[in-house]
Amino acid sequence: MSVTTRQGLPEELVSSSTFLLKRLGYTAKDRAMRAYEEEGLHPYHFGILIALDQGSHETQGAIADALGYDRGQLVGLLDELEERGLVERQRDPNDRRRHLVQLTADGKRRLRRLRSLSRELEDDFLEPLTEAERQKLHTLLLKLAAKHEPRCAPYQPS
User: Fold this and answer.
1) I need a labelling partner for 34 at 20 to 30 A (CA). Which of 95, 98, 121, 145 fits?
2) How crowded is the C-beta side of 141, counted as CA atoms within 13 Å?
3) Are 152 and 145 a contacting pair, CB within 8 Å?
4) What is the C-alpha to C-alpha distance for residues 63 and 69, in angstroms, rounded to an integer?
5) Each residue of 98-137: pLDDT tens digit?
6) How many CB atoms lie within 10 A of CB 41?
7) Per-residue model confidence (pLDDT) at position 93
8) Confidence grade of residue 5 (pLDDT, cut at 50, 70, 90)
């Protein structure tokens, strides 16, 4: 006889850490999508604004590569950000094939709001955990990222 959880999920699934990571990931993504849509943006826009704020990703190609976005998709996202007055693009004077991208003053203000929103979403999602548990979870996630998604793992010079 199989055991099920209160919500009818088979215990065998709930006992799987990867199953829980997937389900919780879907839940976190859905919450983020709704919150960013209320701001008139998408989480992908947030990633672009952060990359630009770091100052090291000023070309469209560098932004796409840093974030793992398809270059064609990035162009559309930048179009949306430019239409909202959050970024500006101009041709690179040293290479007319490239576009340089920078945050506008409105983009910087919006990024501050989105950072606050991101913290609110994380705090709400992780609310059942103590600060120590949050730190431990983050440490464990970074360890998994080092193996399975190195782009997310902290840089460790050789």
Assistant:
1) 145
2) 10
3) yes
4) 8
5) 889 999 999 999 999 999 999 999 999 999 999 999 999 9
6) 22
7) 85
8) low
